From TrEMBL:
<dbReference type="InterPro" id="IPR044399">
    <property type="entry name" value="Mb-like_M"/>
</dbReference>
<keyword id="KW-0349">Heme</keyword>
<dbReference type="Pfam" id="PF00042">
    <property type="entry name" value="Globin"/>
</dbReference>
<keyword id="KW-0479">Metal-binding</keyword>
<dbReference type="GO" id="GO:0020037">
    <property type="term" value="F:heme binding"/>
</dbReference>
<feature type="domain" description="Globin">
    <location>
        <begin position="22"/>
        <end position="169"/>
    </location>
</feature>
<dbReference type="GO" id="GO:0005576">
    <property type="term" value="C:extracellular region"/>
</dbReference>
<comment type="similarity">
    <text>Belongs to the globin family.</text>
</comment>
<dbReference type="InterPro" id="IPR000971">
    <property type="entry name" value="Globin"/>
</dbReference>
<dbReference type="GO" id="GO:0005833">
    <property type="term" value="C:hemoglobin complex"/>
</dbReference>
<keyword id="KW-0813">Transport</keyword>
<dbReference type="InterPro" id="IPR002336">
    <property type="entry name" value="Erythrocruorin"/>
</dbReference>
<dbReference type="InterPro" id="IPR012292">
    <property type="entry name" value="Globin/Proto"/>
</dbReference>
<dbReference type="GO" id="GO:0005344">
    <property type="term" value="F:oxygen carrier activity"/>
</dbReference>
<protein>
    <submittedName>
        <fullName>Cytoglobin-2</fullName>
    </submittedName>
</protein>
<keyword id="KW-0561">Oxygen transport</keyword>
<dbReference type="GO" id="GO:0019825">
    <property type="term" value="F:oxygen binding"/>
</dbReference>
Amino acid sequence: MGSMLTYFLGNPDDDVVDPKLGLTNKEKRIVRETWAVLRANSVKVGVDIMISYFKRFPQHHRAFPPFKDIPADDLLDNKKFHAHCQGIMSTLNDAIDALDDIDLVDAILHTTGKRHGRRGQGRQEFIDLKGVVMDALRGTFGSKFTTEVEVAWDKAIDALFSKIFEGEDMI
């Protein structure tokens, strides 16, 4: 019965804001539920996002030494690239799963920040990636990518990327 009331009336905790991430409980739930759709085919989604990223920002493609000399379209069948994309998706999976445990989110994403900072990658690369991810979400969900879903993802990406930026003094 409680779940039926929640369905019609909403959860009273939906509007509670996590002070460390800036997301409401409802926004966290939206992010988790929509991410579950992408997670079901994570390698393909990761490959599609990264190829779109490389095409839109060829200067960032060059920052990936194992792939910098391979045209973006040729990466579609490159298993080493698929493995790299799966690693990216796994990190996102872990961070999204941990949205209620900020210390775990910090541990996951600070490591990512350190790794990227050592390679000379900075904030701009992530800022550019955000637009590509948002476009992928729009393309996947179409009309179901409502303003509410977009706001939740916009805030979530900003919160997660801020944790990456804390991991290393990124340029």
